[in-house]
Write a structure and sequence with these properties.
CATH topology of the domain at 241-323: Penicillin binding protein transpeptidase fold
CATH architecture of the domain at 241-323: Orthogonal Bundle
Shape: elongated
Distance between the termini: 106 Å
Helix content: 25-40%
Largest sheet: 5 strands, mixed
Number of helices: 23
Strand order of the largest sheet: 2-1-3-11-12
CATH class of the domain at 241-323: Mainly Alpha
Structural class: alpha+beta
CATH superfamily of the domain at 241-323: Biosynthetic peptidoglycan transglycosylase-like
Number of strands: 22
Length: about 850
């Protein structure tokens, strides 16, 4: 078949010319309903005729043969047309708002200060872009730094035309698959374009602008000029924009003095300045440094031996301000520093934040901030002495939040902020501290209430596990109380009950609840740590910001709010470029939240808790603030960490105190060991009292939702309706979620006949007169060899009297006798002949023997610092 365009002959039946690609005319004027072979012979005609006849007889007509080559070609063509069309649309949108290169570069010299506003719309801090930027020529920047940044960021920098086509194709494929700008493909030239004008927000329009501006920069400036501008512009963390600021900020060196080790560490920062900040997380910074060194070897800047030596060499961190004459500490520095980090995470560049003339509206409450900072300094000075160091060993941190909208009103990252780049111990994700018993409401108690337990559910405070030959868990005073309801166990922070409870509801269930409902960053290592996490035996731990977020769920009826620092950002042209509004997730019901509110109110009860034995004061008994409030203490081994997490219906305050690097033991305070209620509690109390007064916050009770039932006569030893035998001191009232209230009568107290003259002997026929006394049924978890619980003094005697035998002397003088709840004398020495119940399953891994919280006897306390402070 001859092609009408080029005149070349093609094989008969061809659809397209194999020489020029032109579509060939179809020789058949009419197409039949079935395919005609491209060749003709007698046999084929006969065969076709037979097939035709067969098709007609069967009533079936064959469809047209699919030409897959044509289908593929049409599909590819359609995709290309669509792709070009969409690409054209993206390019047009990018071009419409594209600035000129000259105006972009001039931003370096024409920066406008950005202003931070508080929650009331009042300006509180001005960000000076020139404070942490000093431009230096490329000749004054060490070749080590130039080589390191090129190797890790754009190894083809000197040969590419401002873009890397291979990277663009790879990124384009990923972006098409994900329907958004997911994969980066930026060269140094494109990064400079972004840093000078664009944001880090990943959109296809922004990526197109980055590409266009990069081309213009590459056309206008030499490679040396572009590298010069990039190194003087790039943000390298800690408020340092440009290589000079970063060299001084981290090492107190000029850019010309940077060693290979220092240059490799700085070159790793542009990817994630906060994450790889060596002043905050040196371990991650070293991992990133190794990546840079490997890239320098790969692209010929170093030999493997040189890279190995550089990795082993000290970097000599020596943080200082860029220019001590001009450097400043912003007002409310802990808060302002975090706002800057939040904006960076939202895609704002360092240039925009410091030089963009932004109006940054925040949730900061200056009054609350000042109260919180003063409370931290006041109590830390009182407990540990006035610090003359910018980074004292004994530190504290606090977070104040409005639980109903997620507004972070104040954050205090440590004692008085005294220098730039000071470590924030409140919000820094690398600050992970053991929670002690403050984890209990999140990991055990709330999950148990959701699962159907009540605040009056009873756990047997009897040890059931042995670890290294010792009974575990144990309370600080090594006292086991016997029957203990959840409300009282949480109030005195009983460790044994907490472990029992987590064991009973399921370790994985409690772990998942704390991780996904309260948002705590638990790890698999924590899960594998076993039941020890019930009392704070975590492998990593959390910071006070994360704990405050979790606790804020309680006063907000089970709704966990997204934290809000920045509410709105307005650019220099008056356009709103970022806005955040309150948003929450329902994690559990208001009824569950109310039960937890009531349980944690008991933690602050100043009165001894009745009928549970000695040392029955709640752990926060002296931290009441004169209005309804709830909370939980926490103490780590050696008092290395002390916590108090507490709230009212309108406010949540979290406080951590401890040794800066987690060392222990911590010294005692004037009020005793640095427990949670001693070292962290007074800070919490002072903040709460003063904020409520200064902000005129009205007194409110925790709102009781519908579906709650009050039961006035619950036995604290059974969790059921008190029987006629229960002593009045063991009968208390409590709130229940509708459907979980007790309906049956408890049987933990029961009548027993004992010999009238020998009440430590069980009566039988022939033993003379008897009396009927009420005794406490012994705990099923107890068996011989296990420490005897405190309430064993109320157990029935086990010795049987001998009939017709001369009575022995009265046991009234026996040291083993004591008074039962009903007033009768009973034995406190249970017989070893009583059959033992099977023990519970032991933990799968050795739990941590953390102290949790401490059940302390009454002690002198002071709610105010000593004279002169």
């Amino acid at each position: 078949m001859r092609c009408p365009k080029c005149g070349q002959d093609n094989t008969a039946g061809s659809a397209f010319c194999r020489f020029c690609g032109r579509k060939l005319p179809d020789p058949a004027k009419k197409r039949r309903a079935f395919a005609i072979p491209p060749f003709s012979s007698a046999s084929s005609k006969a065969k076709g005729s037979a097939q035709d006849t067969k098709a007609k007889k069967s009533g079936k007509v064959q469809g047209r043969r699919v030409r897959w080559g044509r289908v593929v070609l049409l599909t590819v063509t359609g995709l290309m047309v669509s792709g070009f069309g969409y690409g054209g649309y993206i390019a047009y949108q990018a071009w419409k708002s594209l600035p000129s290169v000259q105006s972009m570069v001039s931003l370096q010299a024409m920066g406008q200060d950005s202003v931070i506003y508080d929650r009331f719309g009042q300006p509180v801090a001005r960000l000076h872009g020139t404070v942490n930027r000093v431009n230096v020529p490329l000749s004054a920047i060490s070749p080590n730094m130039q080589h390191a940044i090129i190797a890790i960021e754009d190894h083809n920098f000197y040969s590419n035309p401002g873009f890397d086509i291979t990277s663009i194709i790879r990124a384009a494929i990923v972006d098409i698959v994900h329907h958004s700008a997911v994969q980066g493909a930026s060269t140094i030239t494109e990064q400079l374009a972004k840093d000078l004008y664009l944001s880090d927000k990943k959109t296809l329009v922004r990526k197109a602008q980055e590409f266009m501006i990069g081309l213009e920069l590459a056309h206008t400036y030499s490679k040396q000029q572009i590298l010069d501008m990039y190194l003087n512009e790039v943000y390298l963390g800690d408020g340092a924009s440009g290589i000079y600021a970063a060299s001084k900020a981290y090492f107190d060196e000029t850019p010309a003095q940077l060693t290979v080790a220092q240059a490799a560490m700085l070159a790793g920062l542009p990817q994630a300045p906060s994450l790889y900040d060596p002043l905050v997380n040196f371990k991650l910074a070293k991992q990133r440094q190794l990546q840079v060194l490997n890239a320098m070897v790969k692209y010929g800047y170093l030999t493997p031996a040189q890279a190995k030596a550089a990795y082993a060499a000290p970097v000599n961190l020596h943080p200082v301000s860029v220019d001590s004459a001009n450097s400043q500490i912003y007002p409310y520095p802990w808060y302002v520093d975090h706002v800057i980090r939040v904006l960076q995470e939202k895609g704002f560049t360092g240039t925009q934040i410091f030089d963009g003339g932004l109006k940054i509206y925040t949730a900061l409450d200056p009054t609350v901030y000042n109260i919180a900072q003063n409370a931290v300094d006041q109590w830390m000075n009182y407990n540990f002495g006035v610090s003359h160091s910018a980074d004292p060993t004994y530190q504290a941190a606090a977070v104040v939040e409005d639980p109903h909208n997620g507004y972070i009103l104040a954050v205090i990252g440590g004692r008085t902020f005294s220098q730039p780049f000071q470590e924030d111990l409140a919000t820094n994700p690398s600050v992970q501290r053991s929670t002690g018993s403050s984890i209990k409401p999140l990991l055990e108690y709330t999950p148990a209430i959701v699962k159907g337990y009540t605040q009056m559910s009873v756990i047997q405070d009897v040890p059931i596990f042995k670890v290294n030959g010792q009974w575990w868990p144990h309370n600080d005073n090594h006292l086991y109380r016997g029957y203990l309801d959840l409300r009282d166990a949480l109030a005195i922070s009983d460790n044994d009950v907490a472990v029992h409870l987590l064991h009973d509801i399921g370790l994985t269930y409690g772990y998942d609840f704390a991780k996904y409902k309260f948002g705590l960053p638990l790890t698999q290592a924590d899960l594998h740590a076993g039941l020890g996490i019930a009392i704070g035996g975590l492998k990593e731990g959390f910071n006070v910001y994360e704990m405050t977020q979790a606790y804020a769920t309680f006063p907000n009826n089970g709704v966990r709010m997204k934290p809000i620092w920045v509410t709105k950002v307005v650019n220099a042209d008056g356009a709103v470029v970022y806005q955040d509004t309150p948003h929450g997730t329902v994690e559990f019901s208001p009824q569950v939240a109310y039960i937890m509110d009531k349980m944690m109110e008991r933690v602050l009860d100043p009165n001894p808790i009745p009928s549970i034995g000695p040392g029955s004061l709640a752990t926060g008994y002296d931290l009441g603030i004169g209005r309804p409030a709830a909370g939980k203490t926490g103490t780590n081994n050696g008092e290395a960490d002390a916590w108090f997490m507490g709230y009212t219906p309108q406010l949540v305050v979290g406080v951590w105190e401890g040794n800066r690097k987690g060392e222990y033991p911590q010294p005692s305070t004037p009020n005793g060991p640095a427990y949670g209620d001693v070292a962290a509690g007074p800070i919490w109390k002072t903040i709460m009292e003063q904020v409520n007064q200064a902000e005129h916050i009205p007194v409110e009770h925790f709102p009781r939702p519908s579906g709650m039932v009050y039961v006035p006569d619950v036995s604290i030893t059974s969790g059921k309706i008190a029987s006629q035998y229960a002593p009045s001191s063991d009968v208390q009232g409590a709130w229940f979620i509708q459907g979980t209230q007790p309906t049956s009568i408890g049987n933990t107290h029961y009548p027993v006949k004992v010999v009238a003259n020998h009440p430590n002997e069980l009566w039988q026929q022939g033993c003379g007169p008897y009396v009927t006394s009420v005794f406490l049924r012994r705990e099923s978890d107890w068996h011989p060899g296990v420490p005897i619980p405190w309430d064993a003094k109320y157990w029935a005697p086990t010795k049987m009297c001998t009939p017709n035998q001369q009575p022995s002397p009265s046991p009234s003088s026996s040291p083993s006798s004591s008074t039962s709840p009903s007033g009768q004398s009973t034995s406190s020495s249970p017989s070893a002949t009583i059959p033992s119940p099977p023990p519970k399953t032991t933990p799968s891994s050795t739990p941590s023997a953390l102290a949790g919280d401490v059940n302390k006897p009454s002690r002198p306390s002071s709610n105010q610092p000593g004279p002169g402070h």
